Amino acid sequence: MRFFSDNAAPACPAVMAALIEANRQDTAYDGDAWSKRLDAAFSALFGADVAVLWVPTGTAANALALAALCPPHGAVFCHREAHIQVDECGAPEFYTHGAKLLLLEGEGAKLTPDAIEAAAAAIRDDVHQVQPHAISITNATEAGRVYTPDEVAAIGRVANARGLGFHMDGARFANAVAHLGCTPAALTVEAGVDALSFGFVKNGGMSAEALVFFRPDLAAATRYRRKRAGHLQSKGRYLAAQLLAMLEDDVWLANARAANAGAALIAGAAGGRLVEPVEANEVFLTLTADEAATLRAKGFDFYDWGVGQARFVTAWDQGEAAVRPLADAIAAL
Amino acid sequence: MRFFSDNAAPACPAVMAALIEANRQDTAYDGDAWSKRLDAAFSALFGADVAVLWVPTGTAANALALAALCPPHGAVFCHREAHIQVDECGAPEFYTHGAKLLLLEGEGAKLTPDAIEAAAAAIRDDVHQVQPHAISITNATEAGRVYTPDEVAAIGRVANARGLGFHMDGARFANAVAHLGCTPAALTVEAGVDALSFGFVKNGGMSAEALVFFRPDLAAATRYRRKRAGHLQSKGRYLAAQLLAMLEDDVWLANARAANAGAALIAGAAGGRLVEPVEANEVFLTLTADEAATLRAKGFDFYDWGVGQARFVTAWDQGEAAVRPLADAIAAL
Amino acid sequence: MRFFSDNAAPACPAVMAALIEANRQDTAYDGDAWSKRLDAAFSALFGADVAVLWVPTGTAANALALAALCPPHGAVFCHREAHIQVDECGAPEFYTHGAKLLLLEGEGAKLTPDAIEAAAAAIRDDVHQVQPHAISITNATEAGRVYTPDEVAAIGRVANARGLGFHMDGARFANAVAHLGCTPAALTVEAGVDALSFGFVKNGGMSAEALVFFRPDLAAATRYRRKRAGHLQSKGRYLAAQLLAMLEDDVWLANARAANAGAALIAGAAGGRLVEPVEANEVFLTLTADEAATLRAKGFDFYDWGVGQARFVTAWDQGEAAVRPLADAIAAL
Amino acid sequence: MRFFSDNAAPACPAVMAALIEANRQDTAYDGDAWSKRLDAAFSALFGADVAVLWVPTGTAANALALAALCPPHGAVFCHREAHIQVDECGAPEFYTHGAKLLLLEGEGAKLTPDAIEAAAAAIRDDVHQVQPHAISITNATEAGRVYTPDEVAAIGRVANARGLGFHMDGARFANAVAHLGCTPAALTVEAGVDALSFGFVKNGGMSAEALVFFRPDLAAATRYRRKRAGHLQSKGRYLAAQLLAMLEDDVWLANARAANAGAALIAGAAGGRLVEPVEANEVFLTLTADEAATLRAKGFDFYDWGVGQARFVTAWDQGEAAVRPLADAIAAL
Predict the structure, then answer these.
(1) Which domains does chain A show, CATH number per domain?
(2) Helices and strands (H and E) in chain D: how many
């Protein structure tokens, strides 16, 4: 069984049903009935007036968000391990036309207000230095950790005080919300976030992510950028339908809870092996090469993570029952 | 019934079946079983060693192809009405980092070797002028016309003699092949084409186009550009599966033949109203405002096309039977 | 004697004297005493509050101006023969990150309000088409013609009504002002121009042009773009000193008058050979190959200009006396 | 007296004389007699076939060099304190269209082969990560330190083994050569350097730097990029003349020796205050706020450098005699 990425999971039943239901003639691009319902559906979820664009990948959502918040001659603060820095092949630089990512340290792949303030203070206010225009955080983080609403709000206050845009990469936003038990709004719009890459693909979608602007004015130019980037799919209704299906009956939250529960079960079995507290659906363990081989011999697939460590990721369809064999195998090491 | 775009059509049964079949766990991005079969499947179709990348839109395919063929300081010859110039919001300029499209005239939205030669000859060979690096043609064209293999090959010889890359926007490539009855190879690799945007979405796909490189070496850098543009979907198997389903049993050709047949039926009914010969699945008619209103009152949806003209596009599910009511209505005007 | 370009001329005495005078220690970049005087000096000239940046070339001035007025996903209306389209190797596309130049026709290389309105009206207001954000005109034009204040103001009203930025490429702005006898303000700020590339190099400078913003707010981001483009010279005082020297005692105007007078003398000798009315310092003549050879045999250097035509350009040091031999030789053909 | 930057110095007599000498009519851009002599003059200096382009700033030279060595989707290794990272407002990102600078640590602002190897080894060879394409070092470094020919060659071997381009930012290359007493070739072409930004402005020039390609094939596309960036000055002879004047009679080396001697004198007076060994023309000292105030009260101008430190830079006209008062004042603290 595969635990190397939640991207490996299939699409969930609600999404497949929605695709079949949407498989009929309608207006092209985002003029269709499904796309037109998006703003209202997400505004209801967040209790705020938001503008939403579907895109097929988190990379596209992140890069479009950053382009909306930072000019070509500007910079974005992010963590050294941020997905936008490490795993997007320079998409932020492409979409922003060459803005700089300024890399900060922080435990659990989390930024702190202090780290941002210190970095900002070290930049001379002259034309020789690239000036910061935005902050980007990932929630849940690349280390499987979760920012609380208070932590996000503290960064939001720094952003506000310094006139910086505030982006959240929420590839696993659902897992963060599920872990915290808070509202989606508490973690975003109420904490000063301007734009959220709301991930659905890792959480049971097939090919649709939501780029949510809490400042709806940012959406206008972004619609041009989306088209210009080749992301305005001509049969966009299939993306919109996926998102609506995930919102309906809180499928997104149920899926995330299942994945989190699977991860928690592994964590419980791992005990002292845990490298990071497990707060979402990723588990980082210390594991010797022999132990890793033992697990793989039993049919479990996962990534080595640096030397002597391994990463296990659970998906929406890998709740407690599906994960128990792995948990047992880890406990038996 | 809608005739304003083949983008309005649903996905065809083979594609929907393939998506359901592909809905299981597999490796992420393009490491899955379906994606790995693409090069072989398209190489078989073209009788040549090709490299293929899936992307979700024709705009992405076109822009990636041009970026592979033209540096930022170069230029691409295309027709004044080319989709890359008129309808992609500057995607070629985005992906090429600012290359110029040099616009040529030509009947039926077709370029001719003479027009290209004349334009190329007028460019001084110095650093003050942007130098041409590529030619892009659309087949079938934006006017619903079709380049024959001989016509393509004549342009291919110009490209070769001048050291220019040669791209074909084949959003309706299937319709062109269906009209001509030639092999796909005759219209591309045998005629000197370097890169083809092979359209599937308008022809019954849901969200997958194929960017085909007849010079496979061009694919390596393009794979980085695709990721960098946010087009490397994490569940790429759903795109690859669509393409494979369309190739199998020549679904792509059957679908195109059906659409062409529908267009031909309309053309037959239109008689002297035809603005352009109908060679694919688009029909351009002269139509007064009153006549257009009459058709719309009967439930037919289509685009006005300039003053006193209208465009009707048929899709894979709008063959002769589906289109007959429209043909009858036009004949009755 | 050379008449192929006013770029061939040396720097004028006032400029050389200023360089020698400025050759002492001062603060780097644009913090020096000369650079700090620029805004006031140009504001006095234009009778308006302007912000001025020195740059070494007209291409840099033009491209920075367009980047200030047009986003990457936008377009700029200009004449088909505009220097920004024909002779800058894509600098506008580089600095704007891929904006499109939309090419219009017009007699004497001049745009008209009607041509702009017609082109703007033909652009659909949707995300598939690049939307216009600016207009750029050249004064004097690439054909040696001059827009009057009324003509500029008419275009300025179109710009204002449509919310478009308005840029003037004034590589030969001095020659236009000298021809018209109007104030610099009448031709720019009073006519709705937002940014002027005020050329000095062709008019007796060595290496400094002035980018003048009549909307001073546009200068802030441009200062970053200038640095980012490598145009913030570390010893900027030498550029500022050139500009100040040219403004003092209206050297810029005297130089332009001299060049215009030289061109007028040629024009008088040319009679029916004139292809364009001579309104600045460029003369376009019909000339057979034999006649061209005759002139060249007498030591006159100039460009062929298409078939059967030639271009002669006079510089600040080619007033009536210097040009008389050429005028006589042309009259004698 | 100013010691905050060698940019504050005037142009040296040889340069001023050359400008006056060049102040006559000649062909525009780089077709003039001076520009045409550049390749030969620098090839003689380096004992190798080089291609040379003049540009007005080190930022332009650096950014053009990097654009020649690294594609938009690539990365450049450099030191965390490199000028290209810290003081060029993102010029490398602008010219490369968004390549990434990967920042390494190293004593004295110097890279080591080990640091580069370690960073390269940590990058996964897949499309998700930006792949390294070039290395850039600064000699003399931003800390006033000098790489020896052996040190450069060791990095050159890494570049060669990994297929990376190798750029040297030589804003103070002359000072490095003067310090080492080696040939310019030993520090560059013989050590595997592909492109050198050879600085002249800090060393007595007015407005000309040389971008030297030891792989002359890299120059062709760069000529287009230079024009496209607005750096092809129309009266380019004034830049070429400066460079030639500096090469003649080794003015560049004499100037650098003078500046280095001045710095050495300060270093001798500073004793234990030295933060870095003084190997070129920059001196970094520990200095209390009171001590700094004492020096400034005596008329010495310099930059604070972090907390409790200061930087003094000597120029070509600040040799031992000119600097003695400062040295005495420091000794007297």
Answers:
(1) 12-249 (3.40.640.10), 252-331 (3.90.1150.10)
(2) 13, 10
Distance CA A149, CA A164 (A): 19
Separation between Cα atoms, residue A32 and residue B151, nearest integer Å: 38
Q: Is the dihedral of CA A314, A315, A319, A325 positive or negative?
A: negative
The pLDDT confidence band at residue B82, using thresholds 50, 70 and 90, is very high
CB nearest to D225's CB, from B73, B224, B228: B73
DSSP annotation of D24 reads S
Query: Which residues in D lie closer than 8 A to residue A96 (C-beta atoms)?
Result: 98
- Disruptive mutation site among D66, D93, D127 for chain B (greatest number of B CBs within 10 Å): D127
How confident is the model over C205-264, as pLDDT tens digits? 999 999 999 999 999 999 999 999 999 999 999 999 999 999 999 999 999 999 999 999
Residue appearing with tokens 């899709």: B315
A53 touches chain C (CB under 8 A): no
Q: Which of D71, D97, D224 sits opposite B221 (nearest CB)?
A: D71
Query: Hey, which residues does B157 pair with through a beta bridge?
Result: none
Tell me the pTM: 0.98
Sign (positive/negative) of CA torsion B253, B255, B261, B266? negative
- Whether omega before D140 lies within 30 degrees of 0, making that bond cis, reads yes
Measured between beta carbons, the chain C residues lying within 8 angstroms of D239 are 207
Note which residues in 88-107 of chain D have CB less than 8 A from chain B. 97
Measured distance CA(D214)–CA(D211) in Å, rounded? 10
Beta bridge partners of C135: C77, C166
Helix H segments across C99-148? 113-121
Cβ-nearest to C224 among A127, A226, A228:
A127
Query: Are the beta carbons of C251 and C14 closer than 8 angstroms?
Result: yes
Please report the residues numbered 114 through 153 in chain B whose beta carbons come closer than 8 angstroms to any beta carbon of chain C.
127-130
Nearest to A131 by CA among C221, D82, D78, D100: C221
CB D330 within 8 A of CB D266: yes
| B160-165: long-range contacts, CB 8 A cutoff, minimum separation 24 | B160/B192, B162/B120, B162/B132, B164/B77, B164/B132, B164/B133, B164/B134, B164/B135, B165/B68, B165/B69, B165/B70, B165/B133, B165/B134, B165/B135, B165/B194, B165/B195
Q: Give per-residue pLDDT as tens, A48-102.
A: 999 999 999 999 999 999 999 999 999 999 999 999 999 999 999 999 999 999 9
B88·A227 Cβ contact <8 A: yes
Which tens digit of pLDDT belongs to each residue from A241-292? 999 999 999 999 999 999 999 999 999 999 999 999 999 999 999 999 999 9
- Dig out the tokens for B44 from the structure: 């078989």
pLDDT at C172 over 90: yes
Assess B228–A contact: CB distance below 8 Å, yes or no. yes
Which of the other chains make 3 or more beta carbon contacts under 8 angstroms with chain B? A, C, D
Residue B258 tokens, joined: 């059906």
Low-confidence ranges of chain D (pLDDT < 70): none
Cβ contact B221–D127 (<8 Å): no
Q: Tell me B274's DSSP state.
A: B
**Cβ contact, residue pair A25, B11, below 8 Å:** no
- DSSP secondary-structure letter at B299? T
CB pairs under 8 A between C and D: 145
CA distance A100 to chain C (A): 12
D97, D223, D226: residue with CB nearest B72: D97
Q: Are A89 and D129 in contact (CB under 8 A)?
A: yes
Contact of C57 with chain D, judged by CB distance below 8 Å, is answered with: yes
- Distance between CA atoms of residues C188 and C196, nearest Å: 8
Contact D73 B223 (CB under 8 A): no
